[in-house]
Write a structure and sequence with these properties.
It is built from seven helices and ten strands. By secondary structure, the chain is an alpha/beta fold. The radius of gyration is 17 Å and the shape is globular. Bound molecules: adenosine-5'-triphosphate and magnesium ion (MG). Magnesium ion is lined by residues 40-41, 161, 192.
Length: 222
Amino acid sequence: MIQLFHVSKYYDRRPALSDMTLQIEKGEFVLLMGPSGAGKTTLLKLLFCAERPDEGQILVQGRNVARIKTSQVPALRRTMGFVFQDFKLLPKKSVFDNVALPLLVQGVSSFDTRRKVAEALKAVGIDHKKESRPTMLSAGEQQRVCIARAIVNGPLMLLADEPTGNMDPELAGEIMELFKTINARGTTVVIATHNRQVVEQVNRRVVTLVQGKLASDEGAGR
Ligand SMILES: Nc1ncnc2c1ncn2[C@@H]1O[C@H](COP(=O)(O)OP(=O)(O)OP(=O)(O)O)[C@@H](O)[C@H]1O
Ligand SMILES: [Mg+2]
């Protein structure tokens, strides 16, 4: 599903990722760990073509995303869901409208939109709040809405960057359980996190980056 071959990415001639080779199979659940500045966000950005590598090749679902035409990027992204910290909910729109947004952009019919949004909200356990504004929800509830928005289109893979940042351990654990449930239904999940406690609880493959390099890769096949 995802293959990196000797990938490097430089910012101002300094490597954010350096000679990275990594393979993630369809249906895997992978945690990206490593200290601040290790390259976790950079790696995620390369996967959805927000950045291009300077060296090496990246295959995502068989497509070489290092060379993909800009016009093909939206189609690639439609196969992915994102849960990023800076990818905020719209405060003046209802939960329903926030989750429906990716479908609206793609011109999905209102009948299908209602059905898909209802399914996504149910999957994250928040269908009873669909009329609420995000500002009326707790942090955990808001993150569930973000996850619903990320999965509403039935993505092949789900990418998340620090999805449990600022959450207490209990809430972080609940959000991780949700990712595991989504993964169990077949979606490949890749999550960057600092949270070691969460990592231990999740008990899945852990890829650790240090200074842009692969430092360890443990627990594949769990
Ligand atoms: N747009 C950019 N311009 C210049 N340097 C950048 C840019 N984005 C990232 N970097 C640098 O690349 C390196 C890796 O950054 P990255 O954001 O991938 O780290 P990270 O592992 O996600 O860190 P954190 O845990 O703090 O989120 C850092 O040294 C960072 O300063
Ligand atoms: Mg980061």
